[in-house]
Write a structure and sequence with these properties.
- By secondary structure, the chain is α+β, with helices and mostly antiparallel strands.
- The protein is built from 5 helices and 8 strands.
- It has helices spanning 3-11, 21-29, 84-89, 110-119, 121-156; strands at 31-36, 41-43, 51-57, 60-66, 69-76, 81-82, 96-99, 103-109.
- Helix 1 packs across helix 2 and helix 4 crosses helix 5 (121-156).
- It starts with a helix and ends in a 7-residue tail after the last helix.
């Protein structure tokens, strides 16, 4: 990907569309465009947070390790941002990210990303909105799972009232 293409991708995202041109150019210059085949891991749970990613094309699966197994906890697609939570929290990765399809992403260095959101109110607000959206999606998924578990429990309890 050419430098101008990176600017076009960044400008098309709500997260960066309001950045002044000089910051957008710096962001594009310090970003790396990466491609992955379906099934390739971008990073694993526990890895250091070295960057934030924006999906240009394709989808990724978010996986969490539970009981020695990888459990799919979600899918992200075009224009989704991921990897930012570990940077903001200054922690290692909390999930494994695997390409679900052929994938093209823009990787923003962690220090550049952190500088961007600490120095630019619009970018910080966009990241907060993105994180809030993720929290809402996880909450909805949890409530759906909780409802299914409750329904299965109710169905599996023997009816003692007819005895």
């Amino acid at each position: 990907m050419q430098y101008g293409d990176a600017i076009t991708v960044l400008r098309s995202l709500p997260l960066f569309c309001k950045l002044d041109p000089s910051r957008l150019k710096l962001l594009a210059f310090s970003s790396i465009y990466l491609t992955f085949e379906a099934g390739e891991e971008l990073f694993q749970e526990g890895d250091p947070a070295d960057g934030a990613y924006i999906i240009d094309e394709g989808e990724v699966e978010v996986l969490a390790a539970r009981g020695g197994r990888q459990i799919s906890v979600g899918t992200l697609a075009r224009h989704d941002l991921f990897g930012e939570m570990a940077i903001i929290l200054n922690q290692s990765r909390t999930a494994t990210i695997r390409a679900k399809t052929e994938l093209k992403v823009l990787k923003i260095d962690a220090s550049v990303f952190l500088q961007l959101v600490t120095e630019n109110r619009d970018a910080a607000l966009a990241v907060m909105r993105s994180l809030s959206d993720k929290i809402n999606r996880v909450t909805e998924r949890y409530q759906q799972l909780e409802g299914r578990v409750h329904a299965e429990h109710v169905l599996s309890v023997p009816d003692t009232a007819s005895d």
